Amino acid sequence: MKDRYILAFETSCDETSVAVLKNEKELLSNVIASQIDSHKRFGGVVPEVASRHHVEVITACIEEALAEAGISDKEVTAVAVTYGPGLVGALLVGLAAAKSFAWAHQLPLIPVNHMAGHLMAAQSVTDLKFPLLALLVSGGHTELVYVSQAGDYKIVGETRDDAVGEAYDKIGRVMGLSYPAGREIDQLAHQGQDVYDFPRAMIKEDNLEFSFSGLKSAFINLYHNADQRGEELSQADLAASFQAAVLDILLAKTKKALVQYPVESLVVAGGVAANQGLRERLAAELGQHLEIIIPPLRLCGDNAGMIAYASVSEWNNGNVAGLDLNAKPSLAFEALEE
Ligand code: KG4
Ligand code: ZN
Questions:
Q1: Could you give the C-alpha distances from 31 to 10, 15, 38, 68, 93, in angstroms and in order?
Q2: Which residues take part in binding substrate (predicted)?
């Protein structure tokens, strides 16, 4: 059989990325152009700036991805692209590039949900076995997803307010850390102690929902009150206490989901899956009971490689789009009907 190459595009937020996946399994290239430095001074992603950056670098990313993969544009077999969720202007740049490439080379265009991408990045670690449960934690999402088979994603629990990564970034801003703050808080947390008693919202409630806005507010209040009194709080202890609360919540709800949906593998993915504290606790508390699959660090943040992996089951399931494919900024998985 002829070799198959999927060319994948990801531009939903502040990373412009193009990847080449060979024969469904082998990621030959995964070029990621980050714009973080342009957004840092604003303390978050500025949508217009993001779109402009994508336009500036997308062509170079395609060329680099093909060159690194060692293939020509004529060898590509299919094109995959993130069509949501994300910033509409940012998504449109990737869509325009993907559609143009697909049209010029008369190739199928495979639409991919960004969150399916995060989840399926785990396919790079091992051949996923279904059914499985996934904890998806990123800057925009916190959700527990039941996957009965490849390509069938159903939400069983999610956050009512802030996403966990968003909470990290917001408290990081208050602490004077640069955006995105998750990684730095994670590092600080390892140097401190859990001495401030932050709330663990809904942890005892019998549902699979999360809430992080109360924790964020409690943190900000403590910080500001201390500031007004001229008191200096330990950044490391603050980070450790915040992270302990976050991890208690994530672990409790994941365990609860595993009782309700007994599966043999748990995928943990999304930007926050890079968190070392989370990885340690998952291994210690759940590692003996089931297989925990976490994508390697470079596939945890936004990248097109994960979109390529997720596109495989979409393509197998006949999910191919026309050139009228539009961006869906609030695209979401459906809830699982009991
Ligand atoms: O998945 P991602 O790259 O982008 C979205 O789709 O949102 O996730 C980015 C988020 C940011 O909020 C960032 O602070 C967080 O992931 N993050 C972390 C860590 N590394 C990145 N949060 C906690 N601990 C980390 N080590
Ligand atoms: Zn993401």
A1: 10, 10, 18, 9, 16
A2: 136-140, 169, 182, 186, 275
The rounded Å distance from CA 14 to ligand 1 centre is 12
240 CA distance to ligand 2 middle (Å): 24
Q: Is the CB of 182 under 6 A from ligand 1?
A: yes
Same-domain status, 96 and 135? no
Looking at ligand 1, which atom is closest to the CA of residue 139? 7
**Would you state the pLDDT for residue 295?**
97
Residues 278 and 180 in one domain: yes
Structurally, the chain folds into a number of domains equal to: 2
Q: Are residues 162 and 252 in the same domain?
A: yes
140 CA: nearest ligand 1 atom: 7
Q: Check whether residue 110 and residue 174 sit in a common domain.
A: no
Task: Tell the burial category of 161 from Cβ atoms under 10 Å away from its Cβ (0-12, 13-18, 19+).
Answer: middle
Instruction: Report the predicted TM-score, pTM, of the whole model to 2 decimal places.
Output: 0.96
Residue type at 163?
Answer: A
Are 155 and 287 found together in one domain?
Answer: yes
Q: Which atom of ligand 1 is nearest to the CA of 181?
A: 14
In this structure, which residue's CA is closest to atom 3 in ligand 1? 301
Phi and psi for 298 in degrees, rounded to 5?
-70, -15
- Provide block-wise average pLDDT over 10 residues at a time, the chain (338 residues): 96 96 98 88 86 95 98 98 98 98 98 98 98 97 97 98 98 96 98 96 95 97 95 96 98 98 97 98 97 97 97 98 98 92
Q: Which domain holds residue 66?
A: 5-120+300-335
Q: What tokens were used for 90?
A: 């940012």
Which of 262, 277, 294 marks a domain boundary? 294
Verify that 137 and 274 share a domain, yes or no: yes
Mutate to test the pocket of ligand 1, among 13, 34, 113, 272 (most ligand atoms within 8 A of CB): 272
pLDDT confidence of residue 117: 98
CATH number, domain of 97, equals 3.30.420.40
Nearest CA to 144 among 164, 168, 170, 126? 164
Q: What is the pLDDT of residue 38?
A: 82
As a whole number of angstroms, the distance between CA 247 and CA 284 comes to 12
For the Cβ of 181 lying below 6 angstroms from any atom of ligand 1, the answer is: yes
Same domain, 242 and 311: no
- Interval between CA 327 and ligand 2 midpoint (Å): 16
